[in-house]
């Protein structure tokens, strides 16, 4: 069971999570994974940049805030005085460690990716320690471990480290396996791991899901439950589409697609470890535990809708490289994409016309300037292409569903729905997997486009 940040948002919620865990102790063997308390990872990122720019007063203020937040949480989550004192000792030790690391950054006004991961790791260390205390307080045989203690070993790609799968699997199954057969409940920090030299790494934002699925697959769990603050994966963002509903079942492939397009609280790589073994993953809501949530399994559910969900990615920009001089020149697409990649800009979507007279791609808006600069430098100066067009305010609408594969007429229906609202489609892309049709519209049209497709396929609740 993995618990997300909102579910651990304050001491009361942490205690609530501990009682929720307690309901399942009887008759089950459990491993618990915890995220940082809500917003703490963001605050730690902010703390690091304040420290880098040497703004010590603000650093101190934020450190104070994080200290009292965790102090309050210990007070609310753990009642028995002896346990509470012990938890507080550990929490203080970690807060000291955090302070030292951040002060170090203040002095040298620089944070390397490695330092950043060290600082970020405190979010999960603190929250997990408090959850551990609350579990002890409720009489459960909890054992605290960091992801590193548990044996998650990664490469040294700080910030987005990749697990060495076999080493990790061996470590996790023996270390956690031993604890479980001793009748203990391991409580593991999400998100953090260590490289082969034992230096702390992190698995990328939202990485606690990944921690949970790595553990679940290593120990051969029957199910992996990702507890968050939503009832499950939905047909659309309910804030944009009021009649959106929870999907009772989706396949791994669909869940991955939804995660890539930003469905709440999912790490895109989280399903890799479970796919292989076919371990079912359930998304559940700590604030509504009676709800069964969304079940994610290997099998494709053919019976229901071919289109499962309509997602919106905003804050993106579109870059188009045009010009007759690129027509029929082999390798232009490669050069364009290579120039962008070398500046570490992630390309989210690509489309090229058959005439090869234009190539368009989508990047996050905050990377737009970098992408354009990269292209202008390396291509225009070579005289390869004529023109670079930039659209700063666009959005991607992604229509996801495994049943679309081989079902004719889906794209026609999608675009008819959008056209009927008078919305102009600026770019289209469909992967050969046919799992997803994505298209780009103006930012101002995006929500209406999502609603139109959602309605066209009757994805919402009736009435
Ligand atoms: N705390 C980390 C984050 O906010 C990891 C997670 O929540 O899964 O990204
Ligand atoms: Mg999270």
From TrEMBL:
One Pfam family per UniProt: ACT_9
Residue ranges constituting the ACT domain according to the UniProt record: 321-393, 399-463
InterPro entries on file: AceGlu_kinase-like_sf, ACT-like_dom_sf, ACT_Aspartokinase, ACT_dom, Asp/Glu/Uridylate_kinase, Asp_kin_monofn, Asp_kinase
One of the GO biological process terms: threonine biosynthetic process
Superkingdom field: Archaea
Transmembrane feature ranges: none
Keywords, alphabetical: Amino-acid biosynthesis, ATP-binding, Kinase, Nucleotide-binding, Transferase
Gene Ontology cellular-component terms listed: cytosol
EC number assigned by the record: 2.7.2.4
Pathway(s) per entry: Amino-acid biosynthesis; L-threonine biosynthesis; L-threonine from L-aspartate: step 1/5; Amino-acid biosynthesis; L-methionine biosynthesis via de novo pathway; L-homoserine from L-aspartate: step 1/3; Amino-acid biosynthesis; L-lysine biosynthesis via DAP pathway; (S)-tetrahydrodipicolinate from L-aspartate: step 1/4
Family annotation (Gene3D superfamilies): 3.30.70.260, Acetylglutamate kinase-like, VC0802-like
GO terms for MF: aspartate kinase activity; ATP binding
Catalytic reaction equation(s): L-aspartate + ATP = 4-phospho-L-aspartate + ADP
Enzyme class label: transferase
Family: Belongs to the aspartokinase family.
Protein name stated in the entry: Aspartokinase
Originating organism: Candidatus Terraquivivens tikiterensis
């Amino acid at each position: 069971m993995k618990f997300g940040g909102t579910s651990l948002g304050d001491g009361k919620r942490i205690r609530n999570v501990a009682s929720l865990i307690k309901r399942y102790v009887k008759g089950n063997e459990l491993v618990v994974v915890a995220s940082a308390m809500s917003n703490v990872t963001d605050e730690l990122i902010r703390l690091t940049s304040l420290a880098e720019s040497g703004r010590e007063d603000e650093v101190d203020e934020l450190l104070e805030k994080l200290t009292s937040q965790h102090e309050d949480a210990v007070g609310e989550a753990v009642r028995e005085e002896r346990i509470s004192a012990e938890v507080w000792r550990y929490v203080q030790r970690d807060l000291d460690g955090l302070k030292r690391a951040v002060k170090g950054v203040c002095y040298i006004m620089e944070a390397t990716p490695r330092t950043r991961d060290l600082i970020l790791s405190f979010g999960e260390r603190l929250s997990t320690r408090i959850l551990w205390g609350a579990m002890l307080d409720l009489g459960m045989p909890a054992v605290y471990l960091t992801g590193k203690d548990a044996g998650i070993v990664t490469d040294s790609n700080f910030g987005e480290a990749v697990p060495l799968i076999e080493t990790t699997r061996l470590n996790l199954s023996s270390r956690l396996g031993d604890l479980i057969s001793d009748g203990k409940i391991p409580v593991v920090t999400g998100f953090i791991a260590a490289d082969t030299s034992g230096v702390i790494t992190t698995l990328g934002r939202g990485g606690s899901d990944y921690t949970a699925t790595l553990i679940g697959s290593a120990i051969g769990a029957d199910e992996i439950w990702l507890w968050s603050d939503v009832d499950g994966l939905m047909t659309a963002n309910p804030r944009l589409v009021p009649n959106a509903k929870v999907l009772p079942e989706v396949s791994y492939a669909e869940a991955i697609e939804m995660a890539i397009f930003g469905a709440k609280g999912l790490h895109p790589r989280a399903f890799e470890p479970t796919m292989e073994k076919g371990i079912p993953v359930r998304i559940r809501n700590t604030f509504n535990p009676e709800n069964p949530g969304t079940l994610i399994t290997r099998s494709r559910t053919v019976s229901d809708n071919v289109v499962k969900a309509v997602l919106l990615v905003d804050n993106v920009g579109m870059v188009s490289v045009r010009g007759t001089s690129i027509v029929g020149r082999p390798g232009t697409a490669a050069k364009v994409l290579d120039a962008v990649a070398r500046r570490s800009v992630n390309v989210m979507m690509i489309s090229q016309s058959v005439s090869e007279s234009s190539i368009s791609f989508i990047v996050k808006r905050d990377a737009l300037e970098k992408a354009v600069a990269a292209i202008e430098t390396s291509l225009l100066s070579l005289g390869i292409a004529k023109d670079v067009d930039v659209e700063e305010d666009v959005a991607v609408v992604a229509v996801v569903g495994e049943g679309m594969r081989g079902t004719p007429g889906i794209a026609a229906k999608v675009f008819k729905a959008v056209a009927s609202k008078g919305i102009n489609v600026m770019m289209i892309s469909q992967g050969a997997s046919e799992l997803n049709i994505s298209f780009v519209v103006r930012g101002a049209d995006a929500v209406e486009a999502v609603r139109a497709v959602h309605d066209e396929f009757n994805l919402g609740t009736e009435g």
